[in-house]
Amino acid sequence: MSELSKTDKDLLREFAHEIRNPLNAMIGFSALMKDSGAAISEEQRVDCATRINNATKRLLQICERVLDESITGHRVVRKEPVNFDSFCEEIVATFSVDAEEQGVKLTYNIANDFPVMQTDPVLLYEVMTNLISNAIKFTPKGGLVMVKGEVSYKSEALILVVQDTGKGIPTTILMSMMKGERVTTSFAHAHRKGWGLGMQTAQEKAKLLGGTLEVENAMSGGTVACVRIPMKECVAAV
Asked: Is the CATH number of domain 6-72 1.10.1660?
């Protein structure tokens, strides 16, 4: 059996990384439904089932996308209308169990004038889940992770923000990440996987969406990750 090429290894590594978020959601919500010791109402049961269903659909989309790309040999971008408000609601719900277990509050706020996006939902899902997953992972108990959708008419761009109240990212690691270099572990969490692959994936996928990923440490503490996408790339012409 021939050894996998570097491209195949990278694709397999990325695939394994990307399916973890929907799989973790499926495990978390199914565990809530399964736990006979927990009093769960019919409304909560339906809610858990809905979230499992959403995560399963996202997992299927990722699998189908990877299969398409392995056959064609190049990245696939398929744009369609995306309501970012409901999109964020789904993603925040996906991470609700993870955030609760970490003792972190996870919220979102989308501007009233935020338009319907014309973008690739699979790539957008991968960008946002990677940023949110990292934010939760490195935010201490009692902290906050906020997802925001803003409109910059001055720069004619949509800005997708994931901000946390963690300790921030060391400057040397932050600079390496923004250069596209791989970072495998964090300075304070040697026992946990670091920002590297998730941030690298988010950066690459943001570029495929026609945007850029900017990450900086907030003066008040924590990290701010901004995906900036020009309106011409993601808003249908009226």
From this structure: no
